[in-house]
Amino acid sequence: MDPVRARFLKLGLVAWGLAALVIALVMTGVLSTADSAAMTGLRAATDPLPDWTDAAMRGASWLGDGWPRSLLALGFVGYLVSRKLYRAVSYIVYTALGIAALNAWVLKALFHRPRPELVERLVDVDASWSLPSGHAANSAAVYGAIALIATVLWWRKAQRRTIWAVTGLLVFLIGLSRIWLGVHWPSDVVAGWLVGAGWALLLAVALKPVQARFPSA
Questions:
Q1: What per-residue confidence (pLDDT) applies to 33?
Q2: pLDDT over 90 at 1, yes or no
Q3: What is the pLDDT of residue 211?
Q4: Got the DSSP string for 3-68?
Q5: What's the whole-model pTM score?
Q6: What is the mean pLDDT of residues 77-93?
Q7: Which residues fall within 8 angstroms of residue 188, CB to CB, at 6 or more apart?
Q8: CATH 1.20.144 holds for 3-35+52-207
Q9: Of 22, 62, 100, 148, which one is least surrounded by beta carbons within 10 A?
Q10: Distance between CA 116 and CA 93 in Å, rounded?
C-alpha cells in the first residue's frame, strides 16, 4: 500500500473509532449534561443577535440538504467526466450514495435517538432520528471527497490549502447550523462529521480514485 493510502486508512479508522466513542458516550447518557449545556448556552448567546444571523444559519443548513449537495456533486462529476477521470467519478458517486444509506438506513435506525426539544426549533425538520446528524455526515463525506479529488487536480500548496480551508469552513458551518437551529444535539453533529469523514477516507483507500501528486509551492 502506498503512503498516501496508508495515511488515509489510518485517519479513516481513527475517525470511525472516535465516532464509535462519541456514540457510546451518547447512548450511555454520559454526554447528556454537556449536550444540554452546549445547546442552551449557544441559544442564549445567539438570541440577542440580529435576525440575519438566523437566516445565515438556515442558508448554511440548506447547503447540507440533499438537493444542493447533490447538484454540487453532479457538477463536479460532470467536470471529471470531461477529463475522463472515471475512477474519480465512481468514488464521488459511491461516497454520496453510501454515506446517505449508511447514515439514514443503518445508524439512525439503529440508535433511535430523538431530536432535541430543549430549545425552540428555528426550522422545520422531518421525523427522522437525530444520531448521527445527516447534514454533518453527508457534508463531511461528499464535500470532503470532492476536496480530496480537487487537491490532486489542483495540487500546488496554496491551491490545496485554499480547497481544504473552504471545505472545512463549509462543513463546520453546516454542522453548527443544525445545533444553532435547534434540530440536533452537538454530539449528533460531531458523530456525523466523524462518520462522514471516515467513510470518505476509507472509500478512497478501497477505490484508489486518483494518483496523488506531491505538493508544490
A1: 97
A2: no
A3: 67
A4: HHHHHHHHHHHHHHHHHHHHHHHHHTTTTHHHHHHHHHHHHHHHTTS-HHHHHHHHHHHHHTSHHH
A5: 0.95
A6: 96
A7: 26, 113, 130, 131, 132, 133, 136, 178
A8: yes
A9: 62
A10: 32
